[in-house]
């Protein structure tokens, strides 16, 4: 993932997961998207469509961003509601280039 350029932020909740994208511009963090939620909506598809409207995000960058979202959502889905709170600490280690907010 472009560690210095884009930052994926996730809201790690028991019943859903949210994802948003920020950009690092000269050390300033600027929001690129709102939060998209899974499984309430198709967060992956919502992000894909949003990235298409950002002409300055390359196709390769979009692919890397969407692949990372897929990995995190798949991991979230594999956890039960009971263990999601416990897994919150582990998920930060598993995906070190993402920011996770939520239950600690």
UniProtKB/TrEMBL annotation:
Entry GO CC: chloroplast; ribonucleoprotein complex; ribosome
GO BP term, example: translation
Signal peptide: 1-22
Assigned keywords, A-Z: Chloroplast, Plastid, Ribonucleoprotein, Ribosomal protein, Signal
Top-level taxon of origin: Eukaryota
Subcellular location: Plastid, Chloroplast
Oligomeric and partner information: Part of the 30S ribosomal subunit.
Function in brief: Probably a ribosomal protein or a ribosome-associated protein.
The name this protein goes by in its record: Small ribosomal subunit protein cS23
């Amino acid at each position: 993932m472009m560690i210095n350029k884009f930052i994926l932020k996730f809201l790690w909740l028991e019943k859903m997961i949210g994802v948003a994208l920020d950009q690092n511009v000269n050390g300033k963090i600027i929001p690129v998207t709102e939060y998209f939620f899974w499984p309430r909506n198709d967060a992956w598809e919502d992000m894909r469509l949003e990235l298409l409207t950002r002409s300055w995000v390359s196709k390769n960058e979009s692919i890397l961003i969407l692949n990372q979202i897929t990995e995190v959502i798949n991991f979230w889905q594999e956890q039960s509601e009971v263990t999601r709170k416990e897994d919150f600490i582990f998920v930060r280690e598993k995906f070190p280039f993402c920011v996770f907010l939520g239950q600690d």
